[in-house]
Amino acid sequence: MTRTAEVVGLVDGSVETDSRRFYVVLDEKAVVQLDEIVAVTTELPNGSKATHYGIVTELLSRFEGAELPSDTARVVQEILPGEPVRRAEIRVLRVVPELFIAPSAGATVERATGDHRAVALFEDEMRHGMLPLGLDLGGDPVFADMRFVDGRAGGHVSISGISGVATKTSYALFLLYLLLETDGGMDLLGGRSGQASARALVFNTKGEDLLHLDRANAEFRKKPDEAGKWQALGVDAPGPFRSIQLYAPRQDGVTNLVANVRTRNTADVAPYGWTPEQFIREQLLQFCFTSADERATQVGFVEQQVRIQLLRRLRRLAGDATGAVVILEYPPPNTGFNPDRLAERDPEEAGAGEGTVVRDFGDFIDLFERISNVDDEHLLNEWFGRTQGGTRQAFLRRLLRLRRYIGPLIACDLSPISTESQRLHVVDISRLHDDAQRFVVGALLDRIWRDKHGTGRTPLRFVVLDELNKYAPTSGFSPLKELLTDIAERGRSLGVLLIGAQQAASAVAQALPRNASLKVAGRLDASESEAYRFLTPALRERATRFMPGTMVVSQPIVPEPIPIRFPFPPFATNPDEAERGGDASEARTEEIGRRISALAGPEPDL
User: Could you give phi then psi for residue 337, rounded to 5 degrees?
Assistant: First the structure.
């Protein structure tokens, strides 16, 4: 192992050192900055040697000999004897061999470069692959042990920081780009054959920002230094996402199924939704009741009863291929009550006269209202359990309120989102009401979770979800929160890996950030910094001043969090960044616009 010995100072002997922290008196010519890695070799009494590797966490300067503030001017004017002293606080990352000892006072401290830097950051222990996390302040890459990314030894990523400044979503996309769009990422996920089955689902929650990831970033060309940063991470030709499918809700009031988008050609974005049959068989009614207050009352019990009765009475509408269903008045004899088994069976067909035909979400509500008003106690108990009329009305009021929000997502001829066509799938939920957003997130996560049972850890499924506190808040209970908690606790063993982002980790159910192997923080709110115990006090304070693009990463194999920077994205992260003329869809849009203008003729003079 070779070392370019660049001495930066000596271990400070005026204060005690310990096995976790020590101070360095810097050489008068040494230039050292925060987050640099240093090494100090100590000779032990038995003749053996141990090397401490540490990271610079604070820098200090003072005049030795000055006791009062006014002494500063006297030392500068050489009236009072004094000596300028610069010191660096070092937190120990690793000792080789692994001995819990303190470095010797007066030992020589060197800058750790090359192989020594790799040892300091445990790269020699990352034998199963290394995923670049970003660059340190010196421009060298910092890696994560792939075992803690793909679920072998850990999984999930928790990203925290102030909205709009911490660049949480940008960092999540940066990680996905390295995994899904680079040769190095393909190798980490099992080579090209393994990569072919790895998929990622990203929820777009703000505007139509993430519906342009397949387009080049026009601002990237104006930043020539950024290409070099990507090259340092092993990406020679950064560009937009190539294997990507975009989804958005359908437009209301349009006969044909057209995606509701404004900044993209509708031909490039697939509309999504669920047919009545899929709504019943996938048990999506539960995700209409995601409020903790509702689940804590009898309304949650009514939802379970209704969900089971829909499955027991489900029939396909004969002669129909649009997803319409018939709900029988009474279930056939010997029909069970296990919802999962009922959902797995292939429904038989029935004619329109054999029950109630359901073609959209409104038909479901009409069916429940009709049943709630019948004078048949046995039928009421079957559908709603032995609940009071007020509880049944509360159940109906909830669905009536959701009609305008969730109604457009449940209708015949709608197609659900498939996560198999491309490696990256972006689902737009930005224009949906909060209740509809929770419904879509719950429905998609539940399907991914169900599909992964019994398939093993591979193929991997990554899920990027911002505003995590909205779906899994600290207090209360809901099916969606329970699902996310289950994914956080058991997802890595099944290959479902959550990349969750939130403004404040304290607002999220603690099982989610606690089970994340990689913890990432951008700029933090000063009032929230105490919630991030994985950061040192100095780093928590620094994080309140981080600029966009700067993060701090904690991973299990490295005992101290490491500040990093990640390069500017080569893919557009909002409509304003998208390079014009960079894709075929925009060219088609402009051509259609020209044809419409030609047909309309010249504008009249006003």
Answer: -120, 5
Residue 291: alpha-carbon gap to chain centroid: 22
Residues 443 and 456: their CA atoms lie apart, in Å, by 21
Instruction: Count Cα neighbours of 95 within 13 Å in the Cβ-side half-sphere.
Output: 16
CA 186 – CA 149 distance, rounded (Å): 14
Phi, psi of 586 (to 5 degrees): -70, -35
What are 136-160's pLDDT values in tens digits?
Answer: 988 999 999 999 999 999 999 999 9
Q: Who's near 512: CB < 8 A, 6+ residues apart? A: 156, 158, 468, 472, 484, 485, 488, 498, 500
Alpha-carbon gap, residue 555 to 446, rounded angstroms: 28
Q: Which of 35, 24, 91, 30 is nearest to 60 (CA)?
A: 24
Contact of 484 with 523, CB cutoff 8 Å = no
Collapsing DSSP to helix, strand or coil, 493 comes out as helix
CB 483 within 8 A of CB 465: no
Q: Which backbone phi and psi does 61 adopt, to 5 degrees?
A: -145, 140
Per-residue pLDDT at 402 exceeds 90: yes
* Tens digits of residue pLDDT in 212-236: 999 999 999 999 999 999 999 999 9
Question: Based on the number of CB atoms within 10 Å of its own CB, is 176 exposed (0-12), middle (13-18) or buried (19 or more)?
Answer: buried
Which residues are paired to 60 by β-bridges? 87
Cβ neighbours, 10 Å, residue 15: 10
Residue 266: how many other CB atoms lie within 10 Å? 19
Alpha-carbon torsion 147, 148, 150, 151, what sign?
positive
Nearest-10 Cα torsion for 487, 490, 494, 499: 40
Whose tokens are 């996905």? That residue is 176
Please list the alpha-helical segments (H only) found in 215-330. Answer: 224-232, 276-281, 292-295, 298-312
Q: What is the 3-state secondary structure (H, E, C) of 307-375?
A: HHHHHHCEEEECCCCCCCEEEECCCCCCCCCCHHHHHHCCCCEECHHHEEEECEHHHHHHHHHHHHCCC
Percent composition of the chain: helix, strand, coil (DSSP 3-state, to 5):
35, 25, 40
For 571, the token pair is 């893919």
Q: Which residue has the tokens 């192992």?
A: 1
54 contact partners, CB below 8 Å, separation of at least 6: 22, 37, 38, 39, 40, 90, 91, 92, 93, 120
Sign of CA dihedral 551, 555, 560, 562: negative
The answer to whether the peptide bond before residue 271 is cis (omega within 30 degrees of 0) is no
- Joined tokens for residue 470: 């909205």
Q: Tell me if residue 397 falls in helix, strand or coil.
A: helix
Q: Do residues 436 and 406 make contact, with C-beta atoms less than 8 angstroms apart? A: yes
pTM of the model: 0.89
Strands 355-358 and 496-502: unpaired
Structure tokens at 31: 């230039």
Q: Is residue 192 predicted with pLDDT exceeding 60?
A: no
The helix (H) or strand (E) run that includes residue 465 is strand 461-465
Q: Which amino acid is at 441?
A: V
**Residue closest to 325 by CA, chosen among 314, 333, 336, 339:** 314
